């Protein structure tokens, strides 16, 4: 689903114009970004939570030249889905797939 698809879905469900639904979707995204930028945690019950994680500085490599590159520490956004969301995503799927039994290993004839 793209942002445009989400805007269309909001417009259809809420029965507002596409322009109004675009304002709604943009306001939600801006609120999430602003909260994460301020270091706040966002928790949406039944959906999941957004937070940031700190990545430590490290030495990377330029894949083209192989040169060493210092990668500074940074905060990255992280989403943790709720149990309810995980259950909804997996609802209707069949039981876990178990691997088929392996065929017996071939035996070598013994010489006497």
- Enumerate the spans where pLDDT stays under 50 for 5 or more consecutive residues: none
Residue share in helix: 25-40%
Query: How many distinct folded domains?
Result: 1
Measured distance between first and last alpha carbons:
68 Å
CATH topology: HU Protein, Chain A
Number of helices: 3
Given the helix and strand composition, which structural class is it? Answer: alpha+beta
Identify the CATH homologous superfamily.
Answer: IHF-like DNA-binding proteins
As laid out across the biggest beta sheet, the strand order is 1-2-5
Looking at the overall shape, the CATH architecture is Irregular
- Write the H/E string, N to C: HHEEEEEH
Overall residue-averaged pLDDT value: 87
Beta-strand content:
15-25%
The largest sheet, given as strand count, sense and whether it forms a barrel, is: 3 strands, antiparallel
Radius of gyration from the CA trace? 25 Å
Give a verbal description of the structure.
With 112 residues, the chain is of the alpha+beta class. It has one domain (3-88): IHF-like DNA-binding proteins (HU Protein, Chain A, Irregular), CATH 4.10.520.10. 36% of the residues lie in helices and 24% in strands. The strands form 2 sheets. Strands 1-2-5 form a 3-stranded antiparallel beta sheet. It has a two-stranded antiparallel ribbon with strand order 3-4. Strand 3 and strand 4 (68-71) form a beta hairpin. It starts with a helix and ends in a 22-residue tail after the last helix.
Keywords, please?
112 residues; 3-stranded antiparallel sheet; HU Protein, Chain A
């Amino acid at each position: 689903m793209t942002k445009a698809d989400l805007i269309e879905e909001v417009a259809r469900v809420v029965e507002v114009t596409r322009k109004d639904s675009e304002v709604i979707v943009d306001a939600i995204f801006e609120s999430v970004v602003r909260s994460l930028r301020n270091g706040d945690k966002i928790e949406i019950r039944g959906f999941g939570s957004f937070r940031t994680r700190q990545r430590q500085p490290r030495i990377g490599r330029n894949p083209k030249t192989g040169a060493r590159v210092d990668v500074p520490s940074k905060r990255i956004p992280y989403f943790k889905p709720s149990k309810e969301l995980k259950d909804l995503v997996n609802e209707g799927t069949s039981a876990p797939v178990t691997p088929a039994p392996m065929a017996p290993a071939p035996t070598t004839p013994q010489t006497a």
